[in-house]
Specification:
2 helices; mainly alpha; rod-shaped; 93% helix
């Protein structure tokens, strides 16, 4: 995993927390628009985390293939 993959994963986690906080703030004040914004941010964050996971898996596979080729 290179640093950009790690950063994407961390960003996804942080954005997910921010989205959940926004959703809960919307619930607290009874604002459906803010609740929905928070939920959408959580969905986007989950997509970022999933992308980072797949990128890390692909990098691992590339590294393993290079190692097999050099053996």
């Amino acid at each position: 995993m290179d640093s950009s993959d790690a950063k994407a994963g961390i960003k996804g986690a942080v954005d997910g927390i921010k989205g959940k906080a926004k959703e809960m703030a919307g619930v607290a004040v009874g604002n459906d628009d803010v609740i929905e914004e928070g939920r959408e941010e959580q969905k986007t964050a989950a997509a970022h985390r999933e992308t980072a996971k797949h990128e890390a898996e692909a990098e691992k596979a590339r590294t393993e293939a290079r190692l097999r080729e050099s053996s």
